[in-house]
TrmH family RNA methyltransferase
Amino acid sequence: MSAPAPAPGPTGPPASVSDESPATDGALPAADRPHGEETPSAEDDRRNVEDRYRGWSVEAIAADVAARSHPFHVAVENLVHDFNIGSIVRSANAFGARTVHVVGRRRWNRRGAMVTDRYLDVRHQPDAEALHRWAAAEGLAVVGVDNVAGALPLETVELPERCVLLFGAEGPGLSEAALAGCDVVVGISQFGSTRSVNVGAAAAVVMHAWVRRWVFGQQVVPG
């Protein structure tokens, strides 16, 4: 027997939502964003969204997600058309990142995003230097994530509350230009035989570490 349709959230969708994308400068072009879609009813909504968003328009969901986002951003270098970028976008949506910055190539493989990019501010930065300039102007610390020499163990570092979590491409990791502009570089401690953790998995680990610290208040004890 099918379950009854979930009741709408206590506040419902925003009363007024702009027709424009929530992204501003650096936003991906309109051709890359969905448009002209009809909003399904709550009973017929089979999209990959939480039950409380059933029956909401794409614009209304995106506006609500943006309003409840956390003050950390995610950036990933798109140097080799990495298929992991979609997975990173999906995790960024789940953990409430404010923005995802795709650095390098503008086009990226969306398959792993499972259409979560429709509800998230995804911007393009032409190169690492442009990302670092943007972060400096916004007063955001840049935290590079890569198991390179000199990287501090993520488990012993308190991530800044207002920051950009910067990830490299699968395989080559962060570029020299990306590393050069980081305020701190952290690595995820590993205990097996593999040389590195998949970048999509690494991004989820680091985003969750931010959430544990700044949403749940679980402070890091330096090693």
Remarks:
- The radius of gyration is 18 Å.
- The chain has five helices and seven strands.
- The domain at 67-214 is CATH 3.40.1280.10 (Alpha/beta knot).
- The first helix runs from residue 58 to 67.
